[in-house]
Amino acid sequence: MAEVAEGPVLAERPMRSDARRNRELVLAAAEEVFSELGVGAPVEEVGRRAGVGVGTVCRHFPTKQLLVEAVLKAMFTSLLDDAQAALERPDPGPAFREFYFTLSDFQARHRVLAEQMATAVDMQIAAPELKAALHEAMTRLVERAQDAGEVRADIGPADVAMLFSGLAHATAVTGDVQPALRRRCVAIILDGLRPAQPSELPGKPLDFAQLDRLKKRAKR
């Protein structure tokens, strides 16, 4: 049998400018729709707000899950930027508090994120390193605040994340109809993390690796 010569590997074609613009419109519309209505919102509503047909939405995102994941990835990238900006601040205590107020505001603006955090479902994002980077940044924020004596030493970063997961649940349930009440709850949580006269806590500080193991065990 004669050998068949292999042709050159074709490079992936760059996206045309109009296709790229449509994709950006779809993503922006999806973030708006899911933030308002949650992940159960119909794809048709995304297309309507983007000003494109459902076929265009499906060409860029063949399944609704892929669209949700793309929105979550963009949102987590924004949240990671906020965490890294907080790490650059010289005063660890205010930086820690400011980030978690930002996180609460972020959850309120983006109901889809609040729903995902409230149900403790891991984000099936295309780049798992994004989740790892966010966890690392949040861990550093907690550790810096502890080293500065601004946060009690007997907690772990995932303990803090669990507290805000509960607040995310309240945000998803109430639709954030009382922003002042939500921010009041954030202040109560953050004050409870201060080291002055803390109650003795059962168990050990929880980190994100342990939290991931607990989630996997719960799914069995």
Protein described:
- The chain has 220 residues and is mainly α.
- The protein folds into two domains: 16-62, Arc Repressor Mutant, subunit A, CATH 1.10.10; 64-219, Orthogonal Bundle (Tetracycline Repressor, domain 2).
- Helix content is 68%, strand content 0%.
- It has helices at 17-37, 43-50, 54-60, 64-87, 92-109, 111-118, 128-147, 157-174, 179-192, 208-219.
- It starts with 16 loop residues before the first helix and ends with a helix.
Descriptive keywords:
single chain, 220 residues, mainly alpha, Arc Repressor Mutant, subunit A, Tetracycline Repressor, domain 2, 2 domains, elongated
**Radius of gyration, CA atoms, in whole angstroms:** 21 Å
Helix and strand succession?
HHHHHHHHHH
The CATH topology annotation of the largest domain reads as Tetracycline Repressor, domain 2
Number of strands: 0
* Domain tally: 2
Q: Give the percentage of residues in beta strands.
A: under 5%
Which architecture of the largest domain per CATH?
Orthogonal Bundle
What would CATH call the class of the largest domain?
Answer: Mainly Alpha
Content-based structural category: mainly alpha
Enumerate the spans where pLDDT stays under 50 for 5 or more consecutive residues: 1-12
Main beta-sheet annotation: none
Structural shape: elongated
Estimated helix fraction: 55-70%
Mean pLDDT: 83
CATH homologous superfamily (4th level) name of the largest domain: Tetracycline Repressor, domain 2
Query: What is the terminal separation in angstroms?
Result: 52 Å
So how many helices? 10
